[in-house]
């Protein structure tokens, strides 16, 4: 399945990128291979991994630099994945490492600095990668999938995401879109947490999140729009019935809580169908272009 090679100052696994590999990713990467496969895909099939040893040295240099965001990071760290044994102990090893990576990155990308939501992303990465490698993966995520614009002041990519999700919901889940429109529920009312945590902020159960991240690492940020629509479709019947009853508060509480997915395989097949069709039509880029022309 994979060949071990030397790259970026360490031994890594080279997978054969093929339709079979893509199919395997959508079916769910075996957890024992997830670390290696995520690194392979986020580095553009290892083509962008050549200088990762330099990033590790940069990380260690940044650890010696204070950050104006330290206080807020310290406040947010104990609130993050506190149910996970790695992060349960205040000022334990897991929380210290999480703090270190976030502080270092706040100095690496000073325009972003630190934003709530990043803690969830980094904590999730730390469950699969060691401290230095987590920083490396984080920099690749920001560079390759333009997460920079998701977190900078004004959150331009987040505002754009709301608009794209609205249009995709109208196309793929028109009944939900119509029901939400009647009571003026927009994606901005509930989906901020979805996007700024890359769905890692308790949006879905962990087993579903891992499947989402498998395809996110493979296909990039655009696939998350289809994940959002698939999640609304998953709960479509309940959402519409509850709105008919006029229980607006229950709807908002549900959209702000962890949303269960009954069958991960079926859910990811739905994501893959929408994503494949949308990519073939150039749908996201078309919606993005229209949004930016209006801005």
TrEMBL record:
A GO molecular-function descriptor: GTPase activator activity
Pfam families registered for this protein in UniProt: RabGAP-TBC
What PROSITE patterns does this protein's entry cite? Answer: TBC_RABGAP
Q: Where is the Rab-GAP TBC domain?
A: 28-220
Recorded source organism is Jimgerdemannia flammicorona
Top-rank taxon: Eukaryota
Name of the protein described by the UniProt record:
Rab-GAP TBC domain-containing protein
